[in-house]
Amino acid sequence: MNAEEFTPSDEQLEPESSEMLEQPDHSDQPGIAMLDSLLTKKLAQEAELNHKISILEQQLATLESQKQEFIANQLGELQSAIAHLSQQALLPLEQRRQDLQESVNLLQRKQERLNQEMRTIYAGASQEVAIRVQGFKDYLVGSLQDLVVSAEKLDLIPPPIIQEVAAPSPAQEPPLLATQTFSEYREQVEKTLDRYRTMPDYYGAPWKLRRTFENSHSQRISQWFFEQAGRGAIRSMGTRLQNILVAAAATSILRLIYGDRLRVLILATSPERLGEWRRGFQDCLGIGREQFGPEKGVVLFEDPEPLCFKGDRLIQEKAMPLVILDEAEELIAVDLLRFPLLLAFGRDPQAKSSFSSRDERGWDF
After folding, report:
1. Within 13 Å of residue 297, how many CA atoms lie on the same side as its CB?
2. How far apart are CA 39 and CA 49, in angstroms?
3. Spatial distance between the Cα atoms of 251 and 241, rounded to a whole number of angstroms
4. Cα–Cα distance between 207 and 256 in angstroms, integer?
5. Distant-in-sequence, close-in-space partners of 296: CB < 8 Å, separation ≥ 6
6. Considering just the CA atoms, what is the radius of gyration of the chain in Å?
7. Of 364, 313, 358, which Cα lies nearest the Cα of 339?
8. What are the φ and ψ backbone dihedral angles of 258, each rounded to 5 degrees?
9. pLDDT digit string, tens, across residues 3-32
10. If residue 299 lies in a helix (H) or strand (E), which one and from where to where?
């Protein structure tokens, strides 16, 4: 029921207007009460709706906050997962990079070492080794072998025979300097020296020179062969390694002439020097340790007396001894001059030798 149904029209109010003013109309009170009730109900519904709207807005704000928090958490976890996966994927690559870097560093060190060896070894020097330790070890082996040979000589050869060997008969006397000559081998020697100088063979057969041979080396060898007839002293090259190169070249050429009859007897009065001669011959001629020993191709001596005994015995056996004297040998025994082949290295009187200083420093190259 609407309020308009209980509202009187103007025509009805006009005749009774005075009466209505005089007396109150109690017939409209139920309608007004109903309107109040409806209005109250509407207001209550509106308040309830407003309350629900407020709750929904709070819930919406809470959900929005939870949504943002969830998105932030998920984004953080996603970023962490991506970072972890990226790190896991990069670990093998990083390890491989480190391995490659180590390989590059190793190859660079090898290249530097090879370059250093090329600058030294191909110039006639042997590889860098612990000369004192290795040299002393080599010297002990040779000294023990020489000691056995000397003991055998003392037991088997009586004193009269020793005197006879010390003064050999004219038939056993080696050729004198005036009669010994290599002129018949001049062409062969010069061709060999030229080949060593121009076409070095670093992987040649044993007893063939395997190092770079320069013109200064060739001149000293030619002088020793053709001017001194294979018996005399030549000026030192300045270092023992260079002298070893010259001696190795002479040995290689004499090996072509005499073959297996050639025996090399080296005299150097210290274990370090003998060890360096051994390593130098191995390096320059490509021979092994089995070629060193009392009955082998190269024999090392610290004292000239056993060397003389060994040389006399070789001459008796129809062998050809080549005596090589280290530059540090300041005095030469007279008995050494009777051998047919003698190669000594003399110091330059105008230049200070580096042998003594190197010995004191422990052979530091």
Report:
1. 22
2. 15
3. 15
4. 9
5. 290
6. 57
7. 313
8. -100, -15
9. 444 444 444 444 444 444 445 455 567 778
10. strand 298-301
